[in-house]
Hints:
The chain is 28% helix and 11% strand. The strands form two sheets. Strands 3-1-2-5-6 form a five-stranded mixed sheet. It has a two-stranded antiparallel ribbon with strand order 4-7.
Amino acid sequence: MVIAIIAILAALLLPALAKAKERAKGIQCTSNSKQIVTAWFMYANDNQDWLVPNQISGGITTNNNWCAGDMSVSTDTTNLDLIVNAMLYPYIKSTGVYKCPGNPLDMVRGISMNIFMGTSSDQFSAWKVFGKLGSILHPTDRFVTIDEYQVTINDTCFRIDSGINGKMNDWPAEYHNGAGGMSFADGHATLHKWKWLGLPPASYSSYNGKIVLGAGANDVSDLQNFASEP
């Protein structure tokens, strides 16, 4: 009888405990994003309004970028020097905030930065790029960092080909019941719910990308509009 009662109680409590654990991960994820964007602001304040560099390609090192390394390269996935010696870390002093607790893979970084932020040009889109904090006219709507899906994350910028309807390249993570962490240029952080996008198809290549059709294109449109403007 006692064993049966314990089994019933366990059956009732375990789902609640699992939900509480997932909520805690979501809270930590949002806190991580908030700390990252706060550091991003601090860098700009110390550097005459210039945003921390977010290079698209070519000779990216810890000396010229907010972060370095390619998470698709095995030797980079565990190399904390790619974070610690880079340009944003002095304003954070924590390596843990670079990865969502929901990301199950052994990698030091799970976030990427909006390709339009901190760069002088975007070779993939003609939409506006932001070099200085003051150039961002709609900061509430412009994201800075995003949790990227662990299979597609590679370099440090999150590629978006804005202006091409339904075009996806880098893929956002959905570690929290279909939602993923994002930080924005006004300083707020949130878990954004991707309603229709889902996970990328098998053997997906973020370099080549794909055109998302149907309801998922609505999420792609949101992502593009969060990134920049024509």
